[in-house]
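Private note to self, pasted from the team thread so I don't lose it. Backbone tokens:
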């Protein structure tokens, strides 16, 4: 069994893989400053699912929070006796990166691009990852990573309204029943939902037109907010845990004994 971790700006996502299949995803808001807290959380998660630490053969992670890396390393060594594999700029990904400065490219964005390219080997794809930020990745069927776009995520947008104005409250994100709200809360909810819907649709349209003019790409949704837009005809497929799959694929590619082998998938 392989444990995969992804530390984002607001939460820790993780998953357990067996024979290439994600058998148990999990997520938690986690901002502790100690590896002990992280290690104990992971042990308790395993216990609740009926697993033992000894069943974890390998651990891999990606993080967009540099200060968190040492916590993951210490927790894995202390509680599992294993050095985790870190997805970084030196990792083998199987992608041809066309970014002007690859050092700027977040590991989470690389991971979803890798996962999408292995799920859909014969298609050009656009991946929309709707988390703290909403990111767009364009990948050709020849596994060329072309770049993408980044816009503020839904939660960030709502928080910014509440923090930067005197009278607007922070609201729960929902699919509003009516485009025209009849209270301040309803108006904000409408703006957050339909504003993001419009931005995502427009960026998908322009990437498709500019980068894939002769062959319509497959559009994949992922991340915590993607499910809210399932019925808006934005996505051809939704895979909520694509980043975890990508980290799994990358660690498989980078295993010394497996560098020239095919990735095992479910």
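Design output:
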């Amino acid at each position: 069994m392989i444990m995969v971790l992804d530390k984002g700006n607001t939460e820790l996502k993780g998953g357990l893989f067996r024979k290439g299949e994600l058998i148990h995803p999990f997520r938690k808001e986690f901002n502790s400053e100690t590896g002990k807290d992280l290690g104990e959380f992971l042990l308790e998660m395993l216990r609740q699912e009926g697993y033992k630490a000894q069943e974890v053969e390998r651990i891999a992670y990606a993080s967009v929070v540099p200060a968190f890396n040492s916590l993951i390393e210490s927790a894995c060594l202390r509680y599992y006796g294993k050095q985790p594999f870190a997805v970084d700029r030196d990792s083998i990904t199987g992608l041809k990166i066309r970014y002007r400065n690859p050092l700027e490219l977040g590991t989470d964005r690389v991971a979803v691009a890798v996962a999408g390219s292995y799920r859909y080997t014969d298609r050009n794809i656009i991946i929309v990852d709707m988390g703290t930020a909403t990111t767009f990745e364009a990948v050709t069927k020849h596994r060329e990573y072309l770049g993408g776009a980044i816009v503020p995520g839904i939660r960030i947008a709502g928080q910014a309204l509440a923090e930067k104005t005197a009278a607007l409250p922070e609201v729960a994100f929902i699919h509003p029943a009516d485009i025209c709200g009849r209270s301040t809360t309803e108006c904000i909810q409408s703006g957050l939902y339909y504003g993001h819907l419009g931005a995502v649709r427009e960026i998908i349209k322009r990437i498709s037109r500019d980068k894939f003019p002769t062959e319509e790409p497959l559009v994949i949704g992922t991340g915590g907010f993607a499910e809210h837009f399932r019925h808006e005809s934005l996505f051809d497929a939704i895979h909520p845990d694509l980043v975890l799959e990508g980290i799994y694929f990358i660690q498989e590619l980078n295993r010394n004994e497996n560098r020239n082998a095919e990735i095992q998938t479910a």
